[in-house]
Amino acid sequence: MSDVTLTCTVGGVSVALYSKVQVSERANQRTTASFGIVDTTNALNIAQNMKVVLQENGVNKFVGYVDTADRRVIVSNASLISIYEVSCKDTQYLSDKMIYTGDELDGVTSGDAVALIHQNALASQGVTANYAIDLNKTTADFTPGTHTNTYAVNDSLQLAPAGSTFTIKETLNADWNAAHLYRLAMRIQV
Fold first, then answer.
1. 69 occurs within a structural domain
2. Is the pLDDT of residue 140 over 50?
3. CA pair distance 184, 170, nearest whole angstrom
4. Model confidence over 48-100: pLDDT tens digits?
């Protein structure tokens, strides 16, 4: 059996754990963590929403943010010791606190919408994601490249005309009365 090394940083500062670390992972719920910290220097100031990283043998076991940190001060041999009981929330907090104020994203697939929201809001919060996106909105976006049976016009990509043009002219009352259009429509539907 090998030794397990558990380390913790809060707000980028390494801290000393003094109680059992509990990480709760449940389906369809947030992952949470709770643990105790002892501060013999009485210099720590642990506050809500500080980043927390718990590692086991150098591998991330939990990454999240302080939800609550209850501090108790103990006087021992004329020195002060702070004890923190810390509970943490996972990185879902980053998206929970965001209010998206970008484009309405009409006509954009849900996958592209999520990628755009990540690109415009979540990436700046340190959230990483893997995706490829190429969103074209203007004629200039559509114009480059090789087009086969398409062309860019009026901020849209349109299909090029295909086949031959069919024209029928009804110029006389007799043409209209003979109901050629009705028969033509019936032939097309069949």
1. yes
2. yes
3. 12
4. 999 999 999 999 999 999 999 999 988 877 788 889 999 999 988 887 877 77
Domain span at residue 53 reads 6-91
How confident is the model over 158-184, as a mean pLDDT?
A: 68
* Count of structural domains within the chain: 1
CA neighbours closer than 13 Å in the CB half-sphere of residue 6? 14
Q: CB-based burial of residue 136 (10 Å sphere; 0-12 exposed, 13-18 middle, 19+ buried)?
A: middle
- What does 145-159 look like in DSSP terms, one character per residue? S--SSEEEETTEEEE
The answer to whether residue 139 is domain-embedded is no
Q: What are phi and psi of 33, to 5 degrees?
A: -140, 150
Question: How far is it, in rounded angstroms, from Cα 89 to Cα 97?
Answer: 12
**What is the Cα Rg of the chain in Å?**
32
Handedness of CA 175, 178, 181, 183 (dihedral sign): negative
Q: What is the CATH number of the domain that holds 17?
A: 2.30.300.10
Contacts of 72-78 with CB under 8 Å at 24 or more apart are 73/42
Query: Is residue 81 situated within a structural domain?
Result: yes
Position 111 in a domain: no
